[in-house]
Design goal:
Radius of gyration: 14 Å
Shape: globular
CATH architecture: 2-Layer Sandwich
Number of domains: 1
CATH topology: Alpha-Beta Plaits
Strand order of the largest sheet: 2-3-1-4
Distance between the termini: 11 Å
Number of strands: 4
Order of helices and strands: EHEEHE
Strand content: 25-35%
Number of helices: 2
Length: 97
């Protein structure tokens, strides 16, 4: 799951939407077997003056003990994320807050 947060609500939303579009294009070009769910505002939109949005990547199931390939172009995502928006990646989200 990708989490976007920042003090400026429109900037957070715009970044989440922009990176979702980029990732969908990337997925199609590279024919990756995952799907994007979102982006959507977090269930608790504002915490400690920071607005949050989520983008969930749904990967196909892999056999127990196997490691799925890492599908994200992380350096490119970080380049596309403005300094005023924090991007964090949770590889095994327990909660969708």
């Amino acid at each position: 799951m990708l989490r976007f947060s920042g003090l400026n609500a429109p900037a957070v939303e715009e970044t989440a939407l922009s990176l979702a579009t980029y990732l969908e294009d990337y997925r199609q070009i590279h024919q990756l077997p995952w799907e994007l769910l979102g982006p959507t505002p977090a269930s608790v939109v504002k915490v400690a003056r920071r607005y949050s949005w989520h983008l969930l990547l749904k990967l196909p199931a892999v056999p127990a003990g196997a490691m799925p390939p890492w599908p994200l172009p992380v350096p490119e995502l970080l380049k596309r994320c403005p300094a005023k928006v924090r991007l964090s990646i949770d590889v095994d989200p327990l909660k969708l807050l």
